[in-house]
């Protein structure tokens, strides 16, 4: 083994040891903060702070170790005798170089951390999928469906509005930079500004979940904010894909390129969703028709690996891995979890919870590290100031008009206090950083995209430390309920339990889910032989479960109504129908009524009960 290879291995081991020490220090800090009930800083802010300390230490150590070598490289004794202008004629091109002065001996910091940096692709592929999956997997699905229309409106239409607002604002600021002489004409295109808008329109589910969980805010506010942050990451990623493929020549609008980008947006979105659902089908059928539940370790391993594979498969196919793993998490929580043993459900939840916690520590720590060690930062004061202003303008243009429109169709209105807090709580994080860094780290990266990365890091730090710290005082100022326990809210019961009579207002989605998807993928629901037409009898018998049970109404708490495969085998005919999917709080039972898109409308007979 050569000395250089051994030196690199030693440096890599030292960096990994430093990263583990950072994670351990962050865990101990979070424990101490929780012990003192200090809510102004959460684990993401602490991890980013320690990452900055690690980056500062790395720069200082590198400078000390290489100072002597750099001095010898930067010293040129015959520099004064060189010509001030050197002309080089190569074939038909003539290049002119002018001497501007001596090279500073402190230029070492330009290339400082290149050799001792983490590979961001490894970091993102390792920790980002569990973070996104955990956010979708732990989403309160019953409340999510109750507010489905509102969440989708904020996540899809709101993200596009935010992207356009930020892009328009930043394009105006780039024109101002040209007038002030801080940027050359043509350095920032409209597509660069829209790309920055797509990146910054993604709110971070990790930061939002940590904030909402610590404060235990009102459950409707929790659902709206967390549901939006989970889904708008997917929209922002696909928007980024579409914008990067749009070829713009100067300021000329190209309709063909625009239509191609719009088609790519839809294609990537639909394809990624299908990839995620395909892996859910594979996992569900595998756990349904095998006896993996007899070994919870193997059961959990299969669940974890297939869920992770959805991300990698989508990435390998040129689609969005984040969108795929997001919808894989949503559908796994709806179907596959019903086939798992009781211990398997506990293990999968805890496994993804640990990966989510460690992932956010490492990624936010890496953000702080990159903030001080990235060799090609571009700080442009006007661009940064405009970005800080535009995120508030875009958030307001997103939340307030859409909330007004949604309240026209909602029985349970979104109060102004909720809207004010939602405008403030647009925290940015891992997804925005990963996209910005992947664009800035390319070999063909432009100065505009490096400026986008620098500004993104500053905005992430600002939203985590400033807006995150201000959330608790703002909640109290707005008189929004905190310390709410989900188990104490009677609205968490299913519609049938709440009314004491069967639900007769089931919509199209419920019929599709109850009659076809559940019997196909789980042991629950009516037999497929009753749901499918006679011509599909072979398929119905092939995919019918040997332990089919009808979903029934029973008077128990949601968390107690979980499907236990072992009990089903021994008590097939017993009352209770444990496969009511209440473990995920009855995703669709009675929540989507005819004409109701999940805007928060409660049926009339509920209000009368």
Put simply, the count of helices is 22
Portion in helices: 55-70%
The coarse overall form would be: globular
Poorly predicted residue ranges: 70-116, 487-505, 549-596, 602-609
Q: Give the neighbour order of strands across the main sheet.
A: 1-2
Number of strands: 2
Calculate the terminal CA-CA distance, rounded to whole Å: 77 Å
**What series of H and E elements makes up the topology?**
HHEEHHHHHHHHHHHHHHHHHHHH
Radius of gyration, whole Å: 27 Å
Query: Which structural class best describes the helix and strand composition?
Result: mainly alpha
Q: Average pLDDT value?
A: 75
Structure description:
This protein is mainly alpha-helical and 609 residues long. The chain contains 22 helices and two strands. It has a domain at 507-578. 64% of the residues lie in helices and 2% in strands. It has a two-stranded antiparallel ribbon with strand order 1-2. Helix 3 (120-137) runs parallel beside helix 11 (321-334), helix 3 packs antiparallel against helix 15 (430-440) and helix 9 (255-289) runs antiparallel to helix 10 (296-316). The radius of gyration is 27 Å and the shape is globular. Mean pLDDT is 75; it is low at 70-116, 487-505, 549-596 and 602-609. Belongs to the monovalent cation:proton antiporter 1 (CPA1) transporter (TC 2.A.36) family. Its main location: membrane.
Write the layout of secondary structure elements.
Elements (H helix, E strand, L loop, with lengths): L2 H33 L7 H32 L10 E6 L2 E6 L21 H18 L3 H6 L1 H33 L9 H11 L4 H11 L3 H26 L10 H35 L6 H21 L4 H14 L7 H32 L7 H27 L8 H9 L5 H11 L6 H31 L17 H5 L8 H14 L6 H4 L5 H7 L21 H6 L33 H5 L1
Antiparallel strand pairs: 1-2
Helix pairs in contact: 1-2, 1-12, 2-12, 3-10, 3-11, 3-12, 3-15, 5-6, 5-8, 5-13, 6-8, 6-16, 7-8, 8-9, 9-10, 9-11, 10-11, 10-12, 13-14, 13-16, 15-16
